[in-house]
Amino acid sequence: MIEDDHPVSLLEVRGLIKSFGAARALKGVDLDVHAGEVHCVLGQNGAGKSTLIKTLSGAHQPDEGEIRWNGEAVTIANPVAALELGIATMYQELDVVGGLSIAENIFLGHELARGGVISRREAAKRTRELMQRLGHPDLSPSREVGTLSPANQQIVSMARALSHDIKLMIMDEPSAVLDSEEVNNLFRVVEELTNQGIAVIYISHRLEEIERIGDRLTVLKDGASVGSNLQVSQTPTRELISLMTGTDIEHAFPPRVPIADDAPVVLEVENLTLAGVFEGVDLSVRAGEVVGLAGLVGSGRSEILETIYGHRKATAGSVKVNGKKLKPGSVSSAVSADVGLSPEERKSQGLLLEEPIYRNATLSTFTRFAKAGLLDEAAERRATEEQMKALELRPAEPNRITRTLSGGNQQKIMLARWLIHGTEVLILDEPTRGVDVGARQEIYRLIRDLAEAGTAILIVSSEIEEVLGLADRTLIIADGHVLAERSTADIDEHGVLDLVMKGSAA
Ligand SMILES: Nc1ncnc2c1ncn2[C@@H]1O[C@H](COP(=O)(O)OP(=O)(O)OP(=O)(O)O)[C@@H](O)[C@H]1O
Ligand SMILES: [Mg+2]
After folding, report:
1. Strand-strand pairing, 168-172 and 199-203
2. CA–CA gap between residue 370 and residue 366 (Å, rounded)
3. Are 155 and 189 in a shared domain?
4. What is the pLDDT of residues 90-117, one digit of tens each?
5. What CATH number is attached to the domain comprising 464?
6. Residue nearest to atom 25 of ligand 1 (CA)
7. Ligand 1 atom 7: residue of nearest CA
8. Ligand 1 pocket by C-beta < 6 Å: which residues?
9. Domain extent at residue 25
10. Strands 72-73 and 64-69: what pairing?
11. pLDDT tens figures, 194-241
12. 282 and 424 share a domain?
């Protein structure tokens, strides 16, 4: 690369500071972004990544510091001003509007910005072109966005960004909702952008992605940049982790303990069917066993978990816990049989964002904390604080309002709920989505500890490596069927991918 002589800095950030009340989210961030590069921003949960990009997209105003764009100091007053400069952002919390069509989501803002109106037909035509370019010609402009999967909602968000004439595209954890195929598609788009000289700021907790597409990177720790504009090719993973965490943790899975031969079957699922989604699913999990489901987004894996839990009502088949049949479509039947589910989408499915953290962490445990009819709040807070510390959730303040936590830290609260509670059967859908490397190790350890203590665990993850690292057995799901079952010792990542691809092509 020739960029070392006189690189063109499209964007320069110097000494950026931003507080929310007493909380200092950014304490001095420096970075430079060059035209046509992929600049990765890394850091643990709560390090300030999303806050940084929100100041660049005009959603937040910095308290101090300077932003230079093409060499000139600028103030980015609001998101429209950012777009006028050529900065488009895909947020971590998808910000598409469910009740509107794909075309409306993409072109609504344009009408306002130009003071004119784009005709429906023109909007539909341009939407089709964008979908084609993004590898999704199947998504029709009139389709209602609320009916799309999170992965496809993200495509809409990306299309909206690309509908503007941009110089910088900011992506905040785009791969968190994607499976491996969709990540390939995303990277293809990123490459297309950089080939046109557009810069990309890319945020992800998956370090292998940084190595694959990053040119340079900046690491944030506790709101400050601790390494700015480093070359990806000259920064080994070990160094990255130690910059982010301040320690040398190992990036590895905890050892598996073989399950006892006489371990009883705790969860037994027979012929479970949800018409039109999945069919004839048989599976069982023994005490102390971790069973993984691997498959692409849309294969039915999350729906299988939700149906076992009674969140959806099976159209046929049965779920038994310790030999006792659960009532189909009844979450309370599952809960009283001591089944827990940590769902994939924390916002819509489980967290009370306006409540303090300890309320969320202990939500399913109220009975245990109720002393003579009164809630023992001090005990709730103590238990929560313990888990927050274990999951490296700093500061460990159980009274904080849940909404003010970073995305990854909200995910940890969701998990803490089940780790405090302890259940006979624990169902985990994407337990480490958006969670940083340090806390991942801790979550892996907690999952293995629970298994060792006799919990039957069923887990779904888009990261095949994670399923293989944690599970004793893996079921491959494709197209709403269990395609194959393998002892995890007998299969590697390629083997799983092979099966998954064959299954979805068939
Ligand atoms: N609206 C807000 N009010 C109060 N505190 C906030 C607010 N938004 C963010 N914070 C705090 O600012 C800090 C940085 O949060 P930010 O969302 O930028 O982290 P992040 O690096 O994006 O983390 P993650 O990887 O979990 O997404 C955190 O301590 C967070 O709790
Ligand atoms: Mg974030």
Report:
1. parallel
2. 6
3. no
4. 988 778 888 899 999 998 767 544 556 6
5. 3.40.50.300
6. 45
7. 404
8. 20, 23, 25, 43, 45-51, 92, 404-409
9. 1-86+167-250
10. antiparallel
11. 999 999 999 998 888 999 999 999 999 999 999 999 999 999 888 888
12. yes
